[in-house]
Design goal:
The structure holds 2 protein chains of 2 kinds.
Chain A lengths: L1 H20 L3 H27 L4 H25 L11 H23 L1
Helix pairs in contact in A: 2-3, 3-4
Chain B lengths: L1 H17 L10 H11 L9 H14 L5 H16 L5 H14 L5 H17 L3 H17 L10 H9 L8 E2 L7 E2 H17 L6 H14 L4 E2 L5 E2 L13 H18 L8 H13 L6 H15 L5 E6 L4 E3 L6 E7 L8 E10 L11 E2 L1 E3 L4 E4 L9 E11 L4 H4 E2 L3 E9 L3 E11 L5 E6 L8 E6 L2 E10 L10 E8 L4 E5 L1 E3 L2 E7 H4 L8 E10 L7 E11 L40 H25 L10 H26 L3 H35 L1
Parallel strand pairs in B: 5-13, 6-14, 17-24
Antiparallel strand pairs in B: 1-2, 3-4, 5-7, 7-11, 8-9, 8-12, 10-11, 12-14, 15-16, 15-18, 18-22, 19-20, 19-23, 21-22, 23-24
Helix pairs in contact in B: 2-3, 3-5, 3-13, 4-5, 5-7, 6-7, 7-9, 8-9, 9-11, 11-13, 12-13, 17-18
Classes of the chains: A mainly alpha, B alpha+beta.
Family (chain A): Belongs to the DAD/OST2 family.
Subcellular location (chain A): Endoplasmic reticulum membrane
Pfam family, one (chain A): DAD
């Protein structure tokens, strides 16, 4: 039974890899950006696990900036993806402009909360 | 004879209820030294001529020599004021007053000029102060030079115009516009009217004088009095502008009254008691603290010293405490208010009674002998009926010459409190320990309370302690002191105080320890015994340690009251308190610096990974516009984003939110414009590509 599940997992993994190679480059860039943001958040969580939560506002600020920018990047990916029928009429430049604006507002709030 | 005596006693009793016993002293050398201190100006000259006059007049009355350089500076300001044509009548008045004392050299022409000015003011004057200063100055000019004509032609008219300002209750208004009247103004008016009478070229109407005398009597109806017999004037309305207190109001009236009495013939119908009461008021002040009050007091007393109404005579005693041991003599002095000698008179000691009691006199009426050398009336030896105690002696002054009775006032009978002290004998003092049931004596010790004793006794809670003694006065009578206390003090400084009472002639206290066990807090051990016998008139009051007693008391039960805490030093209550150290919130434990820096590096790692990933994907800048205008916009777009991020960094480092938002507004607007241009250009090019 275990052997079949591991074989299934491997097959799943291979099919995912081959499908992913077909995605356009700009979406891959956005995925990489999301991965980078989440990694930074994980490192901050590891830090707070080691040294404690003082000052808490700084921790929240750093963590939420990573998460927030990741969320905004995911939104950008949804809107820019040409296979997505819902956003067919939306030009990707417009989505990118929204992404930049929202990021700037997010980072203003983050900087204020950083202390 | 008995009826007369009875009536006499009733009268005296009535007076003793109305008037408290008190004593007044005439002016003495302590006044002179105080005057020298108060009136010496800080620099060489006085502040104003009014102050100079007050100082010089006080020195004149008290017989003190002023400093010569002050006289020269005052004379200089006097001549300046008299010569100047812009001086007010007020200024002229005070300058002339100073000149009367100093007798500076002033030319007669100056006096002539002043006199004509003053006469004009008198004739045109309509306020009380105008009249007062101008008429007063004219009187002074008349006294200081003989060649100038100062007599008033229309004296009757001027008298009437001053009188028109008076009111029915004897007070005066300052001017016809001002409806408020004051007693102080009445004094000024009387002085001014006296001046008019002395300056009149022809006699004043007699009816005017009589009306004025009646007004004075009415004014004296408003006198207020103190319990000790002094009377004074006080203003009813408190005028915020210039309130005159009782001293200045009363002195103003006294000056006016004595000035008026000296210029008229005949007498004013005022009782002598009121004049004596006024003298007592001034003497009762003692030594005033400021120069104005001092001057008012001394000037008024000088007016009363030799006035034509009644001259008050003051009975005073140099000492009111007489010691039987030293065989002190009772001495009495009778003087005028300024301390000068009185006319021939005798002082009678009418009666003496113990103060607070309503008994009849303990002595018979007798006359005091007179010592002409010291001008003192004295009693050789105190009568045998005077024992130690507090008495009230009643004196009466009897003038020898019947003519003097119209000139002087003595105030009838004067009550004076006298303290007679002496040595009290303490006899038969003994302390004993008694057995409770039988009352038999276990130990007994005789005490000599003239020196410290060290009687050693021991007792248990079933026994009693007894202390007894007798007190006798120098005349052999029983004496009850103010204080007779027995104090027992334990080793732990817990004290108990008991009052020693008397039964008949014997003072005795019995401490029954059986009943006192709880009061003593069940503390056994050594108690110090201390006896206190004291009184104000006892010259040998006793506060002595009598001995010790070893008390054996039973054990304290559980619920027994605890003895009071040891006496806290009262000074420690106000001393510095213990210092409070503020406990600050302990700062949070911060991680070591190296760890934080390591994690800072770790955080930058994903960014590096991102860049490596981008390179792996083969990221390029091919879509970057090449033509000039879109290129600039693209560059400006990137610069704008970089500027906003830089602004955020600055915001974190040092800026505040307001400046940040302001700058962000500008940058954001710029970024919007630029971004819109480039992105719409990119969108249009990609749309063209798609369609093509």
């Amino acid at each position: 039974m275990a052997r079949s599940t591991s074989k299934d997992a491997q097959a799943l993994f291979h099919s995912f890899r081959s499908a992913y190679a077909a995605t356009p480059t700009n979406l891959k860039i956005i995925d990489l950006y999301v991965g980078f943001a989440v990694f930074t958040a994980l490192i901050q969580i590891a830090y707070i696990a080691i040294v404690g939560s003082f000052p808490f506002n700084s921790f929240l600020s750093g963590l939420l900036s990573c998460i927030g920018t990741a969320v905004l990047a995911v939104c950008l990916r949804i809107q820019v993806n040409r296979e997505n029928k819902e956003f067919k009429d939306l030009p990707p430049e417009r989505a990118f402009a929204d992404f930049v604006l929202c990021n700037l507002v997010l980072h203003l709030v983050i900087m204020n909360f950083l202390g | 004879m008995a009826k007369n005596l009875g009536g006499f006693l009733l009268l005296v009793l009535a007076i003793s209820i109305c008037e408290a016993a008190s004593i007044f002293q005439p002016i003495s050398d302590s006044h002179r030294s105080a005057a020298l201190e108060l009136f010496t100006p800080a620099d060489e000259s006085f502040g104003s001529l009014e102050e100079a006059y007050e100082a010089l007049r006080t020195f004149e009355i008290l017989g003190i020599q002023g400093k010569p350089d002050i006289s020269t500076s005052s004379c200089q300001s006097v001549s300046e004021t008299l010569v100047s044509s812009s001086s007010t009548t007020n200024g002229l008045f005070h300058a002339l007053k100073v000149n009367r004392i100093l007798k500076c050299k002033i030319d007669e022409e100056i006096f002539q000029g002043i006199a004509s000015r003053l006469k004009a003011v008198v004739n045109d004057g309509n306020s009380l102060l105008d009249f007062y200063y101008s008429i007063g100055s004219l009187v002074l000019v008349k006294d200081q030079t003989s060649g100038v004509d100062v007599l008033l032609g229309d004296a009757n008219g001027i008298f009437r115009s001053i009188k028109a300002l008076s009111q029915s209750d004897g007070r005066w208004r300052f001017s016809s516009n001002n409806p408020e009247s004051s007693t102080y103004a009445a004094g000024l008016a009387l002085e001014a009217l006296a001046g008019v009478v002395s300056l009149a070229s022809s006699d004043i109407d007699h009816s005017l004088i009589v009306t004025l005398k009646n007004d004075i009597v009415k004014l004296f109806d408003s006198l207020e009095k103190y319990d000790d017999g002094s009377v004074y004037f006080d203003e009813k309305l408190v005028d915020a502008h210039e309130h005159q207190g009782p001293l200045s109001t009363t002195s103003s009236v006294v000056r006016g009254l004595t000035a008026f009495a000296s210029v008229i013939s005949g007498s004013i119908n005022l009782p002598g008691d009121k004049i004596l009461g006024l003298a007592k008021f001034f003497l009762g002040i003692g030594i005033p603290g400021n120069s104005k009050d001092f001057f008012n007091q001394i000037d008024s007393l000088a007016c009363l010293e030799s006035n034509r109404v009644y001259v008050p005579l003051i009975l005073s005693l140099p000492a009111t405490v007489l010691s039987l041991t030293k065989k002190d003599q009772l001495k009495v002095k009778v003087n005028t208010v300024l301390g000068s000698s009185a006319p021939p008179l005798a002082v009678k000691l009418v009666r003496a009674f113990i103060s607070g009691s309503k008994d009849s006199s303990v002595i018979k009426t007798q006359e005091l002998k007179f010592d002409p050398e010291n001008a003192v009336h004295f009693l050789d030896v105190l009568p045998k009926s005077i024992d130690v105690g507090t008495y009230v002696f009643v004196f009466e002054i009897v003038l020898h010459d019947s003519v003097d009775k119209e000139v002087y006032t003595t105030g009838g009978q004067t009550q004076v409190p006298i303290f007679v002290t002496g040595i009290i004998k303490i006899d038969n003092a003994e302390i004993a320990v008694l057995d409770s049931d039988l009352g038999s004596i276990e130990t007994q010790t005789k005490l000599d309370l003239a020196r410290e004793n060290a009687a050693l006794l021991s007792a248990n809670h079933l026994q009693k302690l007894r202390l007894s003694f007798q007190l006798t006065t120098p005349r052999g009578k029983f004496f009850k002191p103010h204080q007779a206390f027995l104090k027992l003090r334990h080793e732990t400084k817990v004290e108990h105080i008991f009052v020693v009472g008397n039964s008949g002639k014997q003072f005795e206290i019995i401490l029954d320890f059986l009943g006192l066990v709880e009061k003593f807090f069940y503390l056994s051990g050594r108690y110090d015994i201390q006896l206190t016998v004291g009184d104000a008139i006892m010259e040998n009051s006793v506060l002595r340690a009598v001995g010790h007693v070893e008390l054996d008391l039973p054990e304290a039960p559980e619920k027994a009251p605890q003895p009071p805490a040891p006496h806290v030093d009262p000074y420690s209550r106000y001393g510095p308190k213990a210092e409070i150290t503020h406990i600050f919130r302990t700062p949070e434990k911060r991680p070591p610096r190296e760890l934080s820096l390591a994690f800072l590096g770790l955080t930058l790692l994903p960014f590096v990974g991102f860049l490596i990933g981008l390179l792996h994907f083969g990221v390029n800048l091919k879509n970057f516009p090449t033509s000039a205008v879109p290129a600039t916009f693209a560059i400006l777009f990137h610069i704008g984003i970089a500027a906003v991020l830089l602004l955020y960094v600055l915001f974190w480092l040092k800026l505040d939110l307001f400046t940040t938002l302001k700058t962000l507004g500008f940058l954001g607007a710029f970024l919007m414009f630029v971004g819109h241009r480039i992105l719409s250009h990119l969108a249009s090019t990609s749309a063209k590509l798609k369609s093509a």
